[in-house]
Amino acid sequence: MKPSGNQPPADSVTDKAPNRIQVVFRRPEKVKRPETLADKVRTTAPGNVAAAFDELERLIGLREAKKLMYEIHALLRVNKEREKHNLKLEKQVYHMVFKGNPGTGKTTVARLFGKLFREMGILSKGHLIEVERADLVGEFIGHTAQKTRELIKKALGGILFIDEAYSLARGGEKDFGKEAIDCLTKALEDHGNDFICILAGYTDEMDAFLELNPGLPSRFPIQLRFADYTVDELISIAELMVEGKEYKLSPSAREKLRHHLMRKRNDVFEVNFSNARYVRNAIEQAIRRQAVRLLDVAEPTRNEVMTLLPEDFVWPAS
Predict the structure, then answer these.
(1) CATH architecture of residue range(s) 231-312
(2) CB 230: neighbour CB atoms within 10 A?
(3) What architecture does CATH give domain 37-226?
């Protein structure tokens, strides 16, 4: 039977009750929406901010750090909309604590945060001033405050990153480290968000440090945990490192490195494993060993000078 020309299309639903006006409900067109939070950021951020977020997204792991920056971007965007409606703006403090083992990306993230904060208009410069106890603590009364103030002045418009911050409290009540903490605390009050201070170090030591200084947690409301990398993440980091140096891992070299990292990660006596830093050192050593190996080759090919082989990766017996 030939279909009537008045019939609705196959993808519609009709009300066929007698003596009623026929109503056709068409299914809405499928619209492709951003699948992840990172995708949503790219669709709502200006080009320069989106480019900085792309750089952040290319980092291996670091989910908490990425999520934090996406939230800050979203808040700034909503603040602009609230301003249009004459509503109060949500102002936040961005001083942070980074907790985690060595080589988990704390310094890398701090440097990239500076760039992101600059692009988002929170910081005017976005540079990173990286210091430790020796840079802040002086040798006589008044010297510490002077050194600390000078470093804070250099950090204005950017980020002051204090590594192993808990070392400032290790000397006891009469140690000059306490003077550095007091000076820093005052600067946080005086300068607001003219600069962002990040305290970094091992998780347990940072927790103990914050407990000893009751005024600090409220001044550092953002605390990020940097988890150890998985073996798969470390292999991905290794591949990015060798690619950046215009080298490559042979399949067998990759497997040798993977098995070694699995042993290191599963060793209960390995308390000082330095994650990505360990991988970087292993690759640099392998590059040196490859160079020595190629001394026996009169005219090595392009592939030979690029490729790291299993014999280039050698570790002390354990």
Answers:
(1) Orthogonal Bundle (1.10)
(2) 13
(3) 3-Layer(aba) Sandwich (3.40)
